Amino acid sequence: MPISSDMHQTFCAHFRTSKKSTDPKLLISISSLQMNLTERRNAIFLSPTISIFILIIISLAPYSTLSIRFPDQISEIPKEPSNRPLKTVIFALGSFWRSEAVFGCLDGVVRTTAGYAGGSKLNPEYRSLGDHAESVQIEYDPRSISFRQLLEVFWTSHDSRQVFGQGPDVGNQYRSIIFTNGTEEYSLAAQSKEREQTRSKMSVVTTQIQQLGTFYPAEPEHQKFELKRNPFLLQLIGGNLSAEELERSSLAAKLNGYAAELCPPRMQRHIDAKINDILRKGWPILREV
Ligand SMILES: *[C@@H]1O[C@H](CO)[C@@H](O)[C@H](O)[C@H]1NC(C)=O
Ligand SMILES: *[C@@H]1O[C@H](CO)[C@@H](O)[C@H](O)[C@H]1NC(C)=O
Questions:
Q1: Rounded to an integer, what distance in angstroms lies between the CA atom of residue 263 and that of residue 240?
Q2: CA of residue 138 to ligand 1 center, whole Å
Q3: CA dist., res. 172 & res. 134, Å (int)
Q4: Which residues 6+ apart lie within 8 Å of 1 measured at CB?
Q5: Which residues are CB-neighbours of 256 under 8 A, at least 6 positions away?
Q6: Distance 234 CA to ligand 2 centre (A)
Q7: CATH code (residue 19)
Q8: Pocket test for ligand 1, best of 135, 138, 147, 181 (most atoms within 8 A of CB)
Q9: With contact defined as beta carbons under 8 Å apart, do 248 and 31 qualify?
Q10: Which of 32, 106, 182, 215 has the most crowded Cβ, counting Cβ within 10 A?
Q11: Structural domain of residue 161, as residue ranges?
Q12: Which stretch of 39-43, 175-179, 238-242 has the lowest confidence by average pLDDT?
């Protein structure tokens, strides 16, 4: 299940080079920023004074004041948060831990949920998911990102030609699927698959296009998995978020992508800068990005 770090690097490189900004100078400056950040992470872990400072702040603040209200919107441009009509799309492209991270950081993506789809078994679970595929449900604002753009990210974020698995993960649960709702989405998906196939005739694109059926959210421990294994980032957003907050939060979705280094370069740099700023000021809470 876990993606090895080599594999992960390859995916990241693939993801980044597939984006528009491939200026080597830019990439170098991103990696130096990230190195800088890694040093800072280490510094904060290693420095007892800072750790104690953070612990004191966290323990002094009663949980009621610490419970953070996440804004519904992720962009810094003010919008009406509540009555924006969001759309939903579901993709399967290998491990749902990684899939959630791939889409969570995109501008216009409001919420992500890891889950099971594409099979017939009722109430699948991680250890017995039957004929379902690990999937990610993406809630997005169609005024900021389109189904077509999400399809682009889908294709560039996994190997749709790999048979019976994805990366090091072997099995039918890692198959590649685009779930469509209605004829318009179906034809966009079918066209994009044809384009993908014409890129190389040497191997067959295995991706299935399926009519959207029931999506079963995965168990809480599988939600925002990449973020959860980064105690530093969890601490930055206030320590102990409830499972529900982690699932609903746009900030958690973004940082989940950031933790996996799967954000588009511009967003990755933006979050780096925010975090560096917070560390400089010594105040350990990140409220929005
Ligand atoms: C499918 O599309 C219909 C019509 O556009 C919409 O009302 C419905 O909410 C969509 N279903 C999902 C799960 O997105
Ligand atoms: C986090 O909160 C939950 C309940 O909200 C509690 O059960 C758990 O022990 C807490 N974890 C830590 C590390 O404080």
A1: 23
A2: 13
A3: 9
A4: 95, 97, 169
A5: 100, 101, 104, 105, 112, 224, 225, 226, 227
A6: 13
A7: 3.30.1060.10
A8: 181
A9: no
A10: 106
A11: 1-289
A12: 39-43
